[in-house]
Amino acid sequence: MPSASSVQSLAELKSKTISAPFAELFPSRGFARKIFDGSQAGFPTFHGLLVDGEYADKYPEVVVAYLRAAIEANTLLSAETEKYSELIAKVTGINAPVNYLFHEPLGFQTRDLTWKPEYRKDVATSVETLKLLKRADTGLDLDTLITDKYIRAAFEASGLDYDARLADYAPLPLIANEVATGKPIKDTKRVAEIWLKDEPKVRHYATPESALKALTGFEKAGKAACTVYAQDHDKGFKLLADQAWFVLSAKGEVDVFLLKGDADGFAQKSGGEVKDYNGAKLAAQGLPTASR
To answer: Residue 202 to residues 114, 173, 231: CA-CA distances in angstroms?
Structure first.
């Protein structure tokens, strides 16, 4: 933990980068299963950047230029997520579908670069936790450690309104049409997606049942999916479908969960039946294709 005297600013926040996606990367490669997610702790998590205070004071234009580049990269990722997921894969070796899992509008990463009050509080909690674990013996002055003046300057230089974004908690919007109907997807709570091998774009479906039904058709036609995605029913974040649990209702609807315990609890309340990915695919052959 850097000292308050040597570190002046944590310049970028909540840019949940692709630097450590191991909880998703390992399952995608078939030798692990995710059984706990940080969201269960009820605290925000983020990756950020520390810049030496003396350096930042001497070369503020470098810090601002770096953050402007991050803003531009976010814009590019939002516009062409699949393309840049493939580029990240070439540079880092991390599978493109895992990159997409983080960077797509419904993915793990919000790419919100503003210093939300909740994130300041989370840093304070982290400091106190380190002291409790005896990994640090002093506290930190967060008003010295954290400053948003550089990211504010980067927003202004990029023609963006920092204060408006600071007050905005809305996720990045998904702008996509349902493949089965061609209509815009308005409700993203039950969105599912299929990325077929050798296709440059992900196919979007308004419901898991619609995606599973389509997947059955693709496989019968000899088209393989490199990845299928779904949204967690409780937490709303994106999942690798082959690692998820599915609850099938008597009405033919499908709800998806990261954790089997959550799926079991929902099935008990709703009268549904819990299936793993393969079981859900088999059941999908008899599901209706209508989306909502």
So the answer is: 29, 16, 15
